[in-house]
């Protein structure tokens, strides 16, 4: 005997929206008297989507900065020990430990990204005093 | 040979560069860049960090024109100048509308500045 599963087919909902009315206020869709969705003009939706993306980006940046700061603090904590083991080298700190080291900062970083993906990491030279970079950029405002 | 940018005063050597995200070379930005032989390290815009969603990976002490020292975050970025790909670089970010090309980049090129004619040339061969 062959069994056939019957699927219930819902009748499609139809909704007539006057654009002029939509531009004044959103339409609230209700089911059994409860609001389930809102219909808004496309421009308003795009603005909302842009706001949500910016908020998500900001949230990710905040979390990345927190993770970066943690790795930086780990480096500072490990530095006395690293001066014995990795003096003059660059080390990458990830998840609280040294995961890569070498003589070129960018090469060390690229190896980390290759192994672990693009994520917060702290890469720094192990030296008593860090080198100071001079960037005397200024422009005259006329 | 490129003309100096004469919208700044005095005119200065600027050229177009292309930056790309270090983990995704498809995510790029074309920007104007100023040749700045006084800078030890190159700099990108604050807005590039935001738009390319870059994560800082290190910090360096930077001394400004007034001798003030501050520790700033650094970012990795891929850089093309004309047809030359320079690979990934460590850069800082600044509140500007153009990239600064410091000597970390410029020292890879032969550069001829022709001030009187307001033109300059940059190439990888003499």
Question: How many DSSP E strands of chain A?
Answer: 6
CATH architecture of chain B: Beta Barrel
Low-confidence stretches of chain B: none
The radius of gyration of chain B is 15 Å
Low-pLDDT runs of 5+ residues of chain A are: none
SSE run of chain A: HEEHEEHEE
Figure out the total of helices of chain B.
2
Give a verbal description of the structure:
The complex is a heterodimer of chains A (142) and B (126). Chain A has three helices and six strands, in the order αββαββαββ. Chain A has 142 residues and is α+β, with helices and mostly antiparallel strands. Chain A has a domain at 43-125. Chain A has a three-stranded antiparallel β-sheet. A two-stranded antiparallel ribbon of chain A has the order 1-2. The relative contact order of chain A is 0.09. The mean pLDDT of chain A is 88. Chain B is mainly β. Chain B has a single domain, classed as Cathepsin D, subunit A, domain 1 (Beta Barrel). Helices cover 8% and strands 54% of the residues of chain B. In chain B, 29% of the residues are buried. β6 of chain A pairs parallel with β5 (58-63) of chain B, so a sheet runs across the interface.
């Amino acid at each position: 005997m062959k069994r056939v599963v019957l699927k219930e087919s819902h009748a499609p909902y139809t909704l007539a929206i006057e654009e002029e009315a939509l531009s004044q206020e959103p339409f609230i869709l209700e089911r059994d008297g409860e609001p389930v969705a809102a219909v808004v003009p496309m421009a308003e939706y795009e603005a909302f989507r842009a706001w949500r993306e910016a908020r998500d980006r900001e949230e990710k940046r905040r979390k990345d900065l927190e993770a970066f700061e943690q790795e930086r603090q780990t480096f500072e904590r490990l530095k006395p020990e690293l001066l014995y083991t990795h003096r003059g080298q660059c080390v990458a700190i990830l998840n609280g430990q040294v995961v890569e080291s070498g003589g070129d900062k960018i090469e060390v970083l690229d190896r980390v990204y290759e192994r672990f993906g693009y994520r917060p990491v702290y890469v720094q030279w192990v030296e008593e005093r860090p080198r100071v970079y001079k960037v005397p950029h200024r422009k005259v405002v006329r | 040979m490129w003309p100096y940018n004469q919208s700044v005063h005095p005119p200065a050597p600027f050229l177009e560069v292309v930056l790309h995200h270090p983990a995704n070379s498809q995510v790029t930005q074309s920007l104007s860049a100023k040749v700045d032989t006084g800078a030890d390290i190159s700099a990108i815009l604050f807005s590039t960090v935001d738009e390319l969603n870059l994560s800082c990976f290190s910090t360096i002490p930077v001394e400004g024109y007034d001798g003030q020292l501050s520790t700033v975050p650094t970012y990795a970025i891929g850089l093309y100048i004309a047809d030359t790909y320079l690979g990934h670089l460590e850069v800082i970010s600044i509140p500007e509308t153009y990239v600064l090309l410091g000597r970390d980049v410029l020292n890879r090129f032969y550069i001829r500045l022709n001030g009187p004619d307001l033109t300059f040339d940059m190439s990888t061969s003499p």
